User: Fold this.
Amino acid sequence: MKLIYTAGTARGGTNYRTLILKNHSKISMSIDPLIPLFHYYKKSLIIHSGKSNLLSNNFANVLDDYFFDFKRIEIMKTLQKSNPDIPFDITNWNELKVKMESRMSLASANLIPHLDKIPAPTFKEVFENIIEIIARVYKKKNIKWVGFNDNWTIEFFSLIARLFPEAKFIIHLRDPRAVICSSEFAEPDPKKRPTVLSFARHIRKYYAFTEYFKTLPIFKNRLLVTYYERFVEKTEVETKKVLDFLNLDYEPQMTDVSLFRKASGEKWPTLDEIYKSSVNIWEKQMPSEMAELVEFICSPDMHIHNYFPKYYFEKKGLSIKAYNYALNNFNNCLGWRTDFDEFSKNLGCEFNRKRVLELKNLTKKQIEENFLFLEYYYKYKKMKL
Assistant:
């Protein structure tokens, strides 16, 4: 039994791909059960690295996008360099358990009765316990892969890869305009809709980590990137690619949407037609100024993954309509945010990032501030975007 760990962003079509995997007779998967644990893991890693001073940063206890702030980048780098197998502090378990129960209640409620089996002396043992629990609750025979999709958690891939040398990892991507369109128009609770600036930067962070991880020897033959659009349009073909990655045979029932089930066993409330119509729905639903803002933030990054702008072009610059939309969204958004408190700082950083791409002989600090990783920046330069 080996670990399969997948991640994308909310509204990124991750449930669809996770449910397909879950339909395989030799795979057991849970949907988004562990965000509070990863928050706790992040804090514990920072403390264990001897950098408790970083916890005074407002973004030390959230899953950040890390752009444009050296202290936030230091937090990100500390995580990537940390020893992943550190002690698990049991003294905070009761508080953590309440948060995990709340999170699991959304899509992994079948794990809640087993929460007290999770604590262990080290984080590696904690994750081992979680793997055992997920395997047990689905009661499949001859399971080969057990794991979870946890959105927003991509920065932990390298840590878990070191803890579990046989584990494999999948990054789930989707057109950034479709992701944010879904957030703005399919999410009924305005308190769950982040600022467009914040969401777009998190998508861009996924692009950066994807290219960075591709350069790490530890991920050789262990990392796969999937795209929602391809999965919907050529479901069987893309599913077989994942199964080849996992050394498993294709099973026809995997792609039968009518067999998708919640953790409770109830039928998943969707239809195949809904997935198929969702691919380009942003072109009909999304105001042009919103789409332009997303393209402004996510390009030229999105080019790397064959997503191309429709409204924002460098020579024309950001339109007044898109600028005003960004300002109004920043001022009136009721949801979460990881952007800066000052609107001018947010937009100023983005405009500066565009100009930096045109410069030569950047310092390491300048590259990390704007692109997080040197490897990602060099990918840009090779593509001559």
